[in-house]
């Protein structure tokens, strides 16, 4: 058995990525989410709110105005709404990282699920495709995301599915922005400071693509 990350290269990544996506689709179709904690609106918002306390107020030491707080709250609610408009009650593996995926006799072996939840269809897909252990170009990420959509047999256009994917990503990266900031402030983990610029860059780029989140982009510029 070999680790997937040790096998990937520019010539074979598409084949392996599609195999993993096929596995994610199979897991979603065959594994029940019944009885698992539900990744609902409150959970999504609560994770993103870490950014306010630990990044804006903690790292940047900003006292947010009433208007700025309203922009942030509206943005976070818009993100949660788009995520919850996707198919729900999906089994979320929660540990779909390249480092946890192995290959045995050309078959994909997914690591143990220790953070399983009940949630949105794009959660594990985004976690896998945006894993920093092997960086894909944006066009490659979106092409593979649409491959997932087709394997799932979803009757939805490219633009809408990519929006679902992007908003799932925004939620995850806004959460990470708060998590990295909290880890530095509360636990003294200086290494997490190095993760903030790239995390912030992703949030900025994706939020600037959509009308629902553009005011947040301007706020990031201001702060």
Summed up, what is this model?
With 223 residues, this protein is mainly α. The chain is built from 9 helices and 5 strands, in the order E-H-H-H-H-E-E-E-E-H-H-H-H-H.
Core attributes:
223 residues; two-stranded antiparallel sheet; globular; 7% strand; single chain; mainly alpha; 3-stranded antiparallel β-sheet
Structural commentary:
With 223 residues, the chain is mostly helical. It has helices at residues 4-7, 13-30, 41-59, 66-84, 123-129, 138-152, 158-187, 196-207, 214-222; strands spanning 2-3, 90-92, 101-104, 107-110, 117-119. A hairpin with a 2-residue loop joins β3 and β4. α2 (13-30) runs parallel beside α6 and α3 packs across α7. The N and C termini lie far apart (48 Å).
Topology:
Layout: E1 2-3, H1 4-7, H2 13-30, H3 41-59, H4 66-84, E2 90-92, E3 101-104, E4 107-110, E5 117-119, H5 123-129, H6 138-152, H7 158-187, H8 196-207, H9 214-222
Antiparallel strand pairs: 1-3, 2-5, 3-4
How many β-strand runs? 5
The side-by-side strand order for the widest beta sheet comes to 1-3-4
CATH class: Alpha Beta
- Per CATH, what is the topology? Aminoglycoside 3'-phosphotransferase, Chain: A, domain 2
Q: How many helical stretches?
A: 9
Distance between the termini: 48 Å
Strand content: 5-15%
The low-pLDDT segments are none
Name given to the CATH homologous superfamily:
Aminoglycoside phosphotransferase (APH), C-terminal lobe
For the biggest sheet, the summary is: 3 strands, antiparallel
Task: Report the C-alpha radius of gyration, rounded.
Answer: 18 Å
CATH architecture group name: Alpha-Beta Complex
Structural class: mainly alpha
Order of helices and strands: EHHHHEEEEHHHHH
Number of individual domains: 1
How much is the average pLDDT?
95
